[in-house]
Structures are given as structure tokens and as C-alpha cells.
Design goal:
Elements: E1 2-10, H1 17-25, E2 34-40, H2 47-52, E3 61-65, H3 74-83, E4 86-91, E5 97-98, H4 102-113, E6 117-120, E7 122-125, E8 159-161, H5 162-168, H6 180-191, E9 195-198, E10 204-207, H7 221-238, H8 242-259, H9 262-267, H10 274-291, H11 304-311, H12 315-326, E11 333-337, E12 340-349, E13 352-359, E14 369-375, E15 379-385, E16 397-404, E17 410-414, E18 423-429, E19 441-451, E20 454-459, E21 474-479, E22 482-490, E23 497-503
Parallel strand pairs: 1-2, 1-4, 2-3, 6-9, 7-10
Antiparallel strand pairs: 4-8, 5-10, 6-8, 11-12, 12-13, 14-15, 15-18, 16-17, 16-19, 19-20, 19-23, 21-22, 22-23
Length: 505
């Protein structure tokens, strides 16, 4: 048995697969310890010849030629699962590539942590966007599907314990032409005891080629929903704890409404005509009635109006509300309740009457601009702008929130009066940050805008005027009979403002 099987489905990949295979030539893991399974899905170009040209460089390469084209990467990946001899299997697309140390690092960590799944940091190439939220916490020997946001990264380009797949019969469903990756990966996540996230190296490079844009292809609605029904059914069948089952359903459905093409298909004119939209709306209603209704109020509020109107199966009303949301103004905001913003839309024309109120909290977006910054011997001052475009009809107040990084202790500071709407000015005495000895060390800074019960908080610093420069450390400050140094700095990599307080011995 080798350590790792690398599975590469191949179809008309002659232009790209050389880069993929070069990344395997350059692996730091010994060739004796991994095998490469290239599953050629009846390519009509010279992919086979390109692969064979690597046989001398890669004595561990195995070419498996299918006799019938399968129409997608699912069945070739299943062929690789069946043929693999490794302890682990890694799925690599024929136009992506790996970092040179990927296999060695993956395997060593998998053995150290007894991992069922290893999920390494992705890098997008040629403008390809890839999920990053699950890597913010650094290496996670045992990550949680919900708490660590793993549902936002359901591509199969990870390393899996082969025994896990075979024990549970986990393969790529051949009928899932949309969402097949999500179905397979969610099933693996659910069956895994240990999922490891590695953020310390660029492991997998996802390349944007521009050859095809799947989001612009039309699929019958039944095909689209096939995998998503299976995912929800698998959660219900395989997860024993009702609380955990609910957590997973909520996490996945938030991902579904955010990242799937459903809203794009229904709300734009780029793919579906009106008749097709009605068919999709009917299928969406069935899916929501079956798997969403009982927890819809627990999903992110920005999806509530969409879910509500899909359940009403009213395409005209859905499109009417969407158009108004795209052109939302402060005058549309009807109330603030429990920290949420609501807007009311009324239509009384064309023989239709609508009077709908929807949650629009997610539409109140703005950055906080730091326009002035100065540090003195006793205090520092901040000023800037944090406009709230949907709240101009409400009285706003601003607070600076200083957060001690180690303890999480928060110190609020109200803004001084300003003569410009949406602006703030804060003066912070160092003494106010030192009410306890434990509050030395780094402090991070946030600005809050408040209107009634609504609060918008943003980290301060990364968006700032070009002329702002940090002062050198302020040393020898005498406070409470002790001597301190105050060092402002920009954080890495997000470039936000922090202040490190050190006590002299």
C-alpha cells in the first residue's frame, strides 16, 4: 500500500495537464510513497499522449482509459476510488496543480492527527475566487463543520482516508450533474471523526481557464435540485443528534441560498425565460416546503423574503420585490426592530396589489474610513467617516470600541460632536485602557454606528486616507506610578489599526 493516491479525471486536457503533472513531478514526497491515477474519459485530443510523455519522469503514474465517455468527472473519480491503493486519496482536477510539499505535509498531518479528511488552503489562479473563511483561524487539527465554516468549501479537492470512503460506500453520485461535489464532500464530512484544516502553506492551486461557464448553462430544475435533496436527506438520515442535525441543516441552507445559482436563475434574465422560471419556481417551492420551512426563520435574514415569496409561488411579486431591493433608499426603511432593518414596498397598479415588508439589514453596507490619526503622551485621537446610507432618517450615534485581544475586554468611547453627517471623532486617554494590570498587550479598534436597536460594527484601519502615517512608539509614559510604552501598528495581513501596550520593568 502506498501513502497517497492522486486521482485525476482527464478529458481533453492536453493544454493544461502538463502543469498538473509537473506539480507532481516536483513533490517532496518520494515517488515510492504515492501513485497517480489518470482516468482518461475518452478524450478526443492528445491528452493520452501528453500523459504518457510523463511515464519516465513519473514511474508511479498509471493511465486508465475508459471505453465510454461518462459526461463528467464523477464516474472517473469513482474509478479512481476503486483502483486506488493508497491509505489516502486526493482528488486533483486536470487543470489545477499542487504546491511542492502538499502530499508530504498532508500525509504527515493526517497520520499525526488521525484525520479522515485533510483540507489545505486553496489559492486562486488567473482571477479564480476560492473560499478562505475556513483558514482564518490557522491550522485546525480537528475542525468543526459549522463553527469553522467548512460548508463554504465543498469542492472535492481535499485528501480523504480511503478506508472512510470504502467503509461508508462514499462515491460521486452519477446522476448529480449539479452539486455532485457538494454531495460527496458533505457526506464525507458527516461520516468523518476528524477533519483537519491546514492554513500554513499554499496546498492547492485552483486555475480559472475561462473555457466554460457552468453558471450560464441551463439545467432542468429537477436535475438542479437532485443533489441538494440528497444532501438534506443524508443529514436527516445519518446525524443522530437533533441539535446537531439542525445546526448542519441551517449551515448548509445558508450556503445554498448564498452560493447556489438558484437566485440568479430566478431573479435575472441571463439564463431562464419566464416559462422556465415558473418551472424552477415550482421546484424551488417543493424543495423549500420539504427541507426549509421548519427552520426558515433561523436562516440568515437576507434570505427570508426570497424564501417567503418562493413559497407563495408568485413570480411577479418576487421580481417586483427584488427590483425594489436593488434600488433601495432610506425612504423605503419602515422600521427597526430587534436590531434588524425592515423596508415596506407597496404596489397598486396593473391589476395587482402588493404590500410587503422585508428584512433589509444586509443591504446597509458601508466601509469605515479613517481620515485622521494622532498619538500624544497622554491620549490619542481618531477621526473619520462611517455613513449609514439607509439610516439618514434616523438619529445616529457613534462609538469607538477598543477590544483587548487576549481577554476580549471592551472599552467603549462615545464620539465627540462633529459638523458632518456620518463622521466621528474620538479621544482616548491611555489611562482608560489600563484600568486593570491584565490589560497590557495588543488592543484592536472598531467603530459602531447605532440607530435605535440597530448596530453596525466595523474594524478600523484598513480603509484609510493615503496621508495617514503611524507615529513612532510613545515611550516612557508615566501612569498609575508605572512606566509604559504605546506602539501603534498596522496588522498583517488585514492592515487594521492596533495598539500594543507594554509595561517597563
Amino acid at each position: 500500500m502506498v501513502k497517497v493516491s492522486v486521482a485525476i479525471p482527464i478529458y481533453n486536457a492536453s493544454r493544461h495537464v502538463k502543469v498538473t503533472l509537473d506539480s507532481l513531478v516536483n513533490q517532496t514526497m518520494s515517488y515510492d510513497d504515492f501513485e497517480i491515477l489518470c482516468i482518461n474519459d475518452c478524450s478526443t485530443d492528445n491528452s493520452e499522449e501528453v500523459i504518457k510523455s510523463f511515464e519516465k519522469q513519473l514511474p508511479n503514474l498509471k493511465l486508465i482509459n475508459r471505453t465510454e465517455n461518462s459526461g463528467g468527472p464523477m464516474i472517473p473519480r469513482n474509478d479512481a476510488i476503486e483502483a486506488a491503493h493508497g491509505e489516502y486519496i486526493l482528488f486533483l482536477d486536470n487543470d489545477d496543480f499542487l504546491g511542492e510539499e502538499t502530499l508530504e505535509r498532508f500525509y504527515n498531518k493526517a497520520k499525526a492527527y488521525h484525520s479522515d479528511v485533510i483540507y489545505g488552503r486553496y489559492v486562486g489562479v488567473n482571477g479564480r475566487k476560492v473560499p478562505q473563511s475556513m483558514f482564518k483561524k490557522g491550522n485546525l487539527p480537528q475542525a468543526d463543520i459549522v463553527k469553522d465554516n467548512l460548508v463554504m468549501g465543498l469542492a472535492p479537492h481535499k485528501m480523504y482516508r480511503l478506508g472512510l470512503l470504502r467503509e461508508h460506500g462514499l462515491t460521486f453520485h452519477p446522476k448529480a450533474v449539479v452539486g455532485e461535489d457538494q454531495l460527496f464532500t458533505m457526506q464525507c464530512f458527516i461520516e468523518s471523526k476528524v477533519i483537519t484544516v491546514l492554513s500554513d502553506y499554499d496546498y492547492y492551486y485552483v486555475v480559472k481557464r475561462g473555457d466554460e461557464n457552468l453558471s450560464l448553462k441551463y439545467f432542468p430544475a429537477e436535475q438542479f435540485f437532485f443533489a441538494f435533496y440528497r444532501i438534506m436527506e443524508y443529514i436527516n438520515e445519518r446525524v443522530q443528534s437533533e441539535e446537531r442535525k439542525r445546526e448542519l441543516r441551517i449551515a448548509y441552507l445558508n450556503r445554498f441560498f448564498r452560493a447556489s445559482r438558484l437566485r440568479k436563475y430566478l431573479l435575472t434574465n441571463s439564463v431562464l425565460n419566464d416559462e422556465q422560471k415558473k418551472l424552477w419556481l415550482a421546484e424551488a417551492q417543493k424543495f423549500i416546503d420539504t427541507h426549509v420551512s421548519d427552520i426558515k426563520d433561523e436562516l440568515n435574514p437576507e434570505y427570508h423574503y426570497f424564501i417567503q415569496l418562493v413559497q407563495e409561488n408568485d413570480l411577479e411579486k418576487l421580481l417586483f420585490i427584488h427590483r425594489h431591493l436593488e434600488n433601495l433608499t432610506a425612504n423605503d426603511v419602515s422600521r427597526i426592530e430587534n436590531g434588524q432593518l425592515f423596508a415596506r414596498f407597496v404596489k397598486n397598479e396593473d391589476k395587482r396589489e402588493f404590500d410587503v415588508e422585508v428584512n433589509v439589514t444586509h443591504k446597509n453596507k458601508s466601509k469605515v474610513l479613517l481620515s485622521g490619526l494622532s498619538f500624544g503622551q497622554a491620549f490619542f485621537q481618531l477621526e473619520g467617516f462611517f455613513p449609514q446610507p439607509l439610516l439618514t432618517n434616523y438619529k445616529l450615534s457613534y462609538h469607538l470600541i477598543a477590544v483587548h485581544r487576549e481577554t476580549g475586554f471592551e472599552c467603549p468611547f462615545p464620539s465627540e460632536p462633529t459638523d458632518r453627517e456620518g463622521s466621528f471623532r474620538f479621544t482616548v486617554n491611555y489611562l482608560d485602557l489600563l484600568i486593570k494590570d491584565i490589560l497590557i498587550g495588543p488592543w484592536d479598534f472598531f467603530v459602531e454606528a447605532k440607530a435605535d436597536s440597530y448596530v453596525s460594527r466595523r474594524r478600523l484601519g484598513s480603509h484609510r486616507s493615503v496621508d495617514i502615517e503611524l507615529d513612532p512608539p510613545i515611550e516612557g509614559v508615566e501612569l498609575l506610578g508605572k512606566t509604559f510604552t504605546f506602539k501603534p501598528y498596522w496588522t498583517t495581513p488585514r492592515n487594521n489599526l492596533s495598539l500594543d501596550i507594554k509595561k517597563w520593568d
